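Design a sequence for this backbone.
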């Protein structure tokens, strides 16, 4: 399984970006897919997750109303649309495949995420 993120960049406060996570070796619609981020000197934290073929979407509190996770089945791609970006959103953003049970139990962003399958990340800088 390989995940490749793209779409990061530098934007001004209030700007938008759409991140993409393309998978090979697995069908994302059969997985729970999570977006995470890690700022310098901080632990990796969950941002949003999507599972059940996109029917269920989970957001951390800080992402609600600004970020939207979605899926393109034909492209085997999961997106993270980020609007009204703030400097505190500056981080490396990663996608990961998450065990479905952890999404169902709402523990997808909790301890143990180190065992997930990760992409290499894409940098988002907001100034």
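Sequence:
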């Amino acid at each position: 399984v390989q995940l490749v993120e793209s779409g990061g960049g530098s934007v001004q406060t209030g700007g938008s970006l759409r991140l993409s996570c393309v998978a090979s070796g697995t069908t994302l619609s059969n997985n729970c897919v999570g977006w995470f981020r890690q700022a310098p000197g901080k632990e990796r934290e969950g941002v949003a997750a999507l599972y059940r073929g996109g029917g269920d979407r989970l957001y951390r509190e800080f992402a609600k109303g600004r970020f939207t996770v979605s899926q393109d089945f034909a492209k085997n791609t999961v997106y993270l649309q980020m609007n009204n970006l703030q400097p505190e959103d500056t981080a490396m953003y990663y996608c990961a495949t998450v065990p479905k049970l952890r999404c169902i139990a709402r523990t997808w962003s909790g301890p143990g995420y180190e065992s997930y399958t990760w992409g290499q990340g894409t940098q988002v800088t907001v100034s």
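The mean pLDDT is 94.
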